[in-house]
Amino acid sequence: MSGTLQLPAPTWFIGCGNLGGAIVDGWRAGGMDLGPVTVIRPSGKQVEGTRTVTRLADAGPPPKLAVLGFKPQKLDEVAPGLRQHLSAKTVVVSLLVGVEAASIRQRFPGVQAIVRALPNIPVAVRRGVTGLYSVDADQGVRQLVNDLFSALGFTMWMTDEVKLAAVGSVAGAGTAYVARFIDALSKAAVQRGLSPEIAAIIARETVLGTGWMAAGTGETMDSIIRRVASPKGTTEAGLSVLDGEGALDDLIAATINAAALRGAELAREAKAASLAEETRTA
Ligand SMILES: NC(=O)c1ccc[n+]([C@@H]2O[C@H](COP(=O)([O-])OP(=O)(O)OC[C@H]3O[C@@H](n4cnc5c(N)ncnc54)[C@H](OP(=O)(O)O)[C@@H]3O)[C@@H](O)[C@H]2O)c1
Q1: What is the CATH number of domain 11-159?
Q2: Domain range summary for the chain, segments of one domain joined by +
Q3: 137 and 104 in contact (C-beta within 8 Å)?
Q4: Of 169, 110, 163, 170, nearest to 132 (Cα)?
Q5: What pTM does this model have?
Q6: I want to staple 199 with a disulfide (CB 3.0 to 4.6 A). Which of 14, 82, 194, 217 is the partner?
Q7: CB of 62 closer than 8 Å to CB of 187
Q8: How far is the centre of ligand 1, averaged over its atoms, from the C-alpha of 23 (Å)?
Q9: What is the torsion angle, in degrees rounded to the nearest 10, for the CA atoms of residue 103, residue 121, residue 24 and residue 62?
C-alpha cells in the first residue's frame, strides 16, 4: 500500500460488522493508519485500531468520510439521527446493497457527495473486488475513494446502478457461492474416502490454485479446461455432467437472478420509504 495513502480525519463507520470489519482488516493489513477512524455500533464491540463508541452523540466532530456499514433495513432507523452529524464537507460511502444513490441522497441532502461501494469480503485479505458508483463525486473525491478501495484489491467504477448491482450479485454474493462450491467439492472428496480435513484443504487449494494461475497467466477458462480434460478421459466424463443441458450455467444464472431480484426489492422498499418521507416533509 502506498505510504502516503491516508484516511480522512475523522472517518466514521456507522455499523462495522462483517463487511465493515473486512474493510478495516484489509486497511490494517496494508499498514494504513486507523487513527482517524471512529466506529459507531450499538454493541460497542471494539474494532481493533479504531475508537469505537455506541452512540452518534459520542462520535465527535462531523466526519469527512462516513461509511454506512449497517443493513439496508436499518436505513430509516439510522438516517434521521445521523443526518445532523454530517456536514457539507462529508463524503458518504454507502455499502448498502440494493439502495440507490438517490435514496441515500434523499436521506442526507446536505452532504458533499454520495458514493456507493459494493466490495466483497476478500477485501479483508486485500484480494477483494469493489464496484463503485457516484453521480455527484468530483474528481478529488473519486480519486480518494478509488485509492482507498484499490488498497483492498480490484476496483472499478460502474456507469450505472444496474451494472453496480451486477457486481454485487456476482462478486459480493459470489464469495458465498464459491464457498458453497468448495464445500461441495470437499464433500465429494470425503465420499471418495478422504478425511474431512484433507478434503477441505484439497478443495480450497484447487479453487485457489486455478484462480491464481488464471490471474497470473491471463489464460482463459476454456484453455485451462482443454489442458486438464483429454478427449474421452476422466475429467471429460465429469464435465459432461456439469455441462449436461447447461446444468451448471443454468444453476448459476438462476442463483444470480434470485439475488438480483432481492436487490431490486430492497431498492423499491428504500425508494418507497424516501418518497413517503418527502411527502411528510413537503
Ligand atoms: N456481507 C457482505 O458480503 C456484503 C457485501 C456487499 C455489501 N454488503 C452490505 O454491507 C452492509 C453491512 O452488511 P454486513 O454483512 O456487514 O452486516 P452485519 O455483519 O450484520 O453488520 C451490521 C452492522 O450494523 C450495525 N448496526 C446495527 N444497527 C445499527 C444502528 N442502529 N446504528 C449503527 N449501526 C448499527 C451492527 O452493530 P453491532 O455490531 O453493534 O451489532 C453491525 O456492526 C449491508 O448494508 C449489506 O447490504 C454486505
Answers
A1: 3.40.50.720
A2: 11-159
A3: no
A4: 163
A5: 0.92
A6: 194
A7: no
A8: 12
A9: 0
Q: Which of 45, 50, 70, 86 to mutate to test the pocket of ligand 1 (most atoms within 8 A of CB)?
A: 70
Cα(260) to ligand 1 centroid in Å equals: 19
Lowest mean pLDDT among 34-48, 70-84, 180-194, 246-260: 246-260
**Bridge partners of 133?**
116
Per the structure block, which three cell numbers stand in for 4? 502516503
The distance of Cα 132 from the centroid of its chain, to the nearest Å, equals 10
| Residues 196-233 pLDDT 10s | 999 999 999 999 999 999 999 999 999 999 999 999 99
Mean pLDDT of 93-122: 96
Which of 33-37, 97-101, 103-107, 268-272 has the lowest average pLDDT?
268-272
What does the mean pLDDT of the chain come to?
94
Question: Burial, 103: exposed, middle or buried (Cβ in 10 Å; 0-12, 13-18, 19+)?
Answer: buried
Site to probe by mutation for ligand 1, drawn from 41, 68, 77, 161 as the one with most ligand atoms within 8 Å of Cβ, is 41
Separation of 215 CA from ligand 1 center, angstroms? 31
Residue 219 φ/ψ, nearest 5 degrees: -65, 145
| pLDDT score of 45 | 97
**CB-side exposure of 88: number of CA atoms within 13 Å?**
0
